[in-house]
Structures are given as structure tokens and as C-alpha cells.
Amino acid sequence: MIAGIDFGAPSHEVARCLIGTFVLVDGVGGRIVETEAYDRTDPASHSFSGPTERNGAMFGAPGHAYVYLSHGIHWCLNFVCREEGHGAGVLIRALEPLAGLDLMRQRRGLDAMRGLCSGPGKLCQALAVTRAHNGASLAAAPFTLAAADGEHAVVAGPRIGISKAVEVPWRFGLAGSPFLSRPFR
DNA sequence: CTTAGGATCGCCT
DNA sequence: GGCGATCCTAAGC
């Protein structure tokens, strides 16, 4: 258990529980408002075709980070879950920025006006998450996780930006949050 | 407000 | 050699 989250649970349960949880990287971060679940049996998942050098962290211990580069430009942060070797994870898609706002704006540059952490790539840029964090434990520096303060209304819907298993409703968000990457229907 | 297209690099076939 | 769990810009309603 880290910050009240059981990372040994199936990815869609972890994804739902993570909404409202606080995450910081070197003191910069905020509240998680949007996640997506991926599983070994899921054609849209990086782990679907088995372990490789790239996705190795996904098959490591739960409660660790899996970071990968998307389209040669954007880093994306995932939390590994389920049991060791299973290859399941949760993509962190958006945060409500709370700590280190100046640093976030600095890292995001002029584009900060369009949202500091409203997307997987933006969030990693704002928190300075890169390949260097791949495989790192979420229970130790530079990561800090803290339990959600109270109950949160969670909404679910189809995942974004994938071409397979498009209709699987494994995207979760904090209901009514203005910090989502895109609204839920 | 919505949509279409380009950027750009590491991984897999 | 092709493609992607994305983001930004510009153009058209």
C-alpha cells in the first residue's frame, strides 16, 4: 500500500482509486484528476506482446513507475500495478496543479497558458519526468504520494488516442474537474 | 469551437 | 521501415 492505494489490484481498480490522490515529483505536482488503465490482456497495452527492453518496468514490481517516450516528443508516466510480472499499469493523464506552479510554468514555457498538466505529455514536462524515472519506486524520492482527502465522484469513459480496444471504458476522471485533458461525454 | 496535419525518435517486425 | 497510450498550430465554420 502506498498512500492508501493497493497497487496489487487490477489496473482498472487502481486507476479509479488513484483519482483524487496527490502526487509530487521533487515537490512539484498536484491532485490526480484523470487516469487510464492498461492490462496484459489488452491489445492497446504496451505489455500485450510480452516484455521487451522498452516496457520492462511494466513487468516489474507494482508501485513503481513506467515512463516511455511517445511520438519521439512526449514522455508519459504510468504506475505499475497488479502482481509482479503481469504487465499492467495506469497512465496518469492529468493533474490539478497545486505545488511548484512557478517551476511548472517555467518548464512548460509560453504554452503554459493552455494548461499546465492537462495531458500525459504536458504533465511530464511540468514535473520534469523523463526516462530517468523509469522503474523508480513510487514510495521513495523523488516521488511523493499522498492519500486523497475525502471521497470523489469518479466518471468513466473510453480511452483516448488509441486504435485498438477503443470502446473499453477504462478512462477515469474526477467529475466536473476543469483540469481534464478532455471532457467526458 | 472543431478539425486536420505535421513534428520527431525509439521500438518492434 | 513503419508506427505510436500526444501536442500544437493553422485554417475553416
Shape: globular
Q: Provide mean pLDDT, rounded.
A: 92
- Helix and strand sequence: HEEEEEHHEEE
Strand content: 25-35%
Kindly provide the radius of gyration, computed on alpha-carbon positions and rounded to a whole number of angstroms: 15 Å
Structural class: alpha+beta
Structure annotation, total helices: 3
- For the secondary structure, the number of strands is 8
Largest sheet geometry = 8 strands, antiparallel
End-to-end Cα distance: 32 Å
Q: What are the segments in which pLDDT stays under 50 over at least 5 consecutive residues? A: none
Into which percent range does the helicity of residues fall? 10-25%
TL;DR?
By secondary structure, this protein is of the alpha+beta class. The chain is built from 3 helices and 8 strands, in the order H-E-E-E-E-E-H-H-E-E-E. The protein has helices spanning 11-18, 101-108, 120-127, and strands at residues 22-25, 28-38, 65-70, 74-81, 88-99, 143-146, 154-157, 171-174.
